[in-house]
C-alpha cells in the first residue's frame, strides 16, 4: 500500500536571485510600478552592501524548504511529505507552487508561511493567494496561521539570546537592554484589531522570561515609505532615546519577527542600526537568525503535522 502524499507549500517574501533582478523584484513589490532611478539605486546599493557580489539570500530559503521536508519525513515516516516553494514577490510565485503541486498529483496540501506571527496584511495575504489558486485547481488545502508561542520556537530564540549575551563579557545582564524587533506594518492594523503586535509581544515576553531578562523592550524596523503612518517607534529612534534619556551603553537586538538572513536583518540591523549605535557610543550585538536551526524546523514540522491530524 503506497503512503499518503501531502504537499506542503512553504511561503515567504522572496528575494532577487542576483543584482540584475532587483528592478523586476522592486517593480513587483510596487504593484507593477517601476521604481525611479534613485529608488532603484538605493535598493541596489543596499544589496551590494550586504552581499558584496555574492547573493546568498535565496539560498537561505532553499535550504529551509529542503531541511523542513527532511524533518517532516523523518518525524512522520508513515506519510510522504513533499515541500514546494511559493514566494510573494519572486519566482516561483505562490500560485506557481500551488500549480506545481496539482501537476504532481497532490490532492491534500498544507500551506505555511516562514513567519511565526499572523497579520491579515502579511500572512493573511499569502494564504488568500494560495487559497484562491488551490480552489481554482480543485486542491484541498489547509493553512497554519501562526505558531508564535510554540515551545521549540521559544527555546530556539532563547538559546540565541543567552549565547549572544556572552559577547558582552563582564557586563551584568541587568545592564544590557534587550530590544526585540519585527517588521513594521501600517498603523491601521491596530484599528483592525489585527493580532500581529500582540503576538510579537507575547513571543518577546516568553523569550525574556525563559532567559531571565528583565531589561527589555520592543522596537519596530524596516517600515515602508508611504503617506500613511507605520507602527513605531523605529529601532533607530529607540537607540537615540535610550542613550540620550537613560544612558544605556549595551544593547542586544533580537529580531523575533524574522526567521532568516535577508535585507531587513543584514542591512537594516547589521549596517544601519550598527552605524547608529557606533555614533551613539553603544555596544550593539544581534542574535543570529534561525535559518535552518533544528528547533525551528521541528516547530514547523509539529504545526504542519498537527494541522494534518486535525489537532
Automatic annotation (TrEMBL):
EC number per UniProt: 4.99.1.9
First-level EC class: lyase
Family label: Belongs to the ferrochelatase family.
Protein name: Coproporphyrin III ferrochelatase
UniProtKB keywords: Cytoplasm, Heme biosynthesis, Iron, Lyase, Metal-binding, Porphyrin biosynthesis
Subcellular localization: Cytoplasm
Signal peptide: none
Pathway the protein acts in: Porphyrin-containing compound metabolism; protoheme biosynthesis
Pfam family, one: Ferrochelatase
Function: Involved in coproporphyrin-dependent heme b biosynthesis. Catalyzes the insertion of ferrous iron into coproporphyrin III to form Fe-coproporphyrin III.
UniProt GO molecular function: lyase activity
Binding site for Fe-coproporphyrin III: 13, 30, 46-47, 126
Predominant cellular place of this UniProt entry's protein: cytoplasm
Gene: hemH
Iron keyword on record: yes
Amino acid at each position: 500500500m503506497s503512503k499518503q502524499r501531502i504537499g506542503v507549500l512553504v511561503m515567504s517574501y522572496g528575494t532577487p536571485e542576483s543584482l540584475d533582478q532587483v528592478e523586476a523584484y522592486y517593480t513587483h513589490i510596487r504593484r507593477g510600478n517601476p521604481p525611479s532611478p534613485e529608488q532603484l539605486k538605493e535598493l541596489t546599493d543596499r544589496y551590494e552592501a550586504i552581499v558584496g557580489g555574492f547573493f546568498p539570500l535565496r539560498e537561505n530559503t532553499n535550504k529551509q524548504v529542503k531541511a523542513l521536508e527532511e524533518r517532516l519525513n523523518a518525524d512522520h515516516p508513515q506519510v510522504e511529505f513533499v515541500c514546494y516553494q511559493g514566494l510573494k514577490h519572486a519566482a516561483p510565485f505562490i500560485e506557481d507552487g500551488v500549480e506545481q503541486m496539482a501537476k504532481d498529483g497532490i490532492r491534500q496540501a498544507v500551506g505555511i508561511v516562514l513567519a511565526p506571527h499572523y497579520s491579515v496584511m502579511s500572512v493573511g495575504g499569502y494564504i488568500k493567494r494560495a487559497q484562491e489558486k488551490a480552489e481554482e485547481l480543485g486542491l484541498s488545502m489547509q493553512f497554519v496561521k501562526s505558531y508564535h508561542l510554540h515551545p521549540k520556537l521559544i527555546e530556539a530564540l532563547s538559546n540565541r539570546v543567552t549565547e549572544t549575551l556572552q559577547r558582552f563579557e563582564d557586563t551584568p545582564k541587568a545592564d544590557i537592554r534587550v530590544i526585540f524587533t519585527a517588521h513594521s506594518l501600517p498603523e491601521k492594523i491596530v484599528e483592525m484589531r489585527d493580532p500581529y503586535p500582540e503576538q510579537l509581544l507575547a513571543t518577546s515576553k516568553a523569550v525574556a522570561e525563559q532567559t531571565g531578562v528583565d531589561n527589555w523592550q520592543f522596537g519596530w524596523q524596516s517600515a515602508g515609505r508611504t503617506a500613511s503612518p507605520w507602527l513605531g517607534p523605529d529601532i533607530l529612534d529607540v537607540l537615540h532615546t535610550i542613550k540620550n534619556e537613560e544612558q544605556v551603553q549595551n544593547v542586544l537586538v533580537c529580531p523575533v519577527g524574522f526567521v532568516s538572513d535577508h535585507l531587513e536583518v543584514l542591512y537594516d540591523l547589521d549596517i544601519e542600526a550598527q552605524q547608529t549605535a557606533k555614533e551613539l557610543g553603544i555596544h550593539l550585538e544581534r542574535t543570529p537568525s534561525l535559518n535552518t536551526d533544528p528547533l525551528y524546523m521541528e516547530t514547523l514540522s509539529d504545526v504542519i503535522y498537527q494541522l494534518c491530524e486535525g489537532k
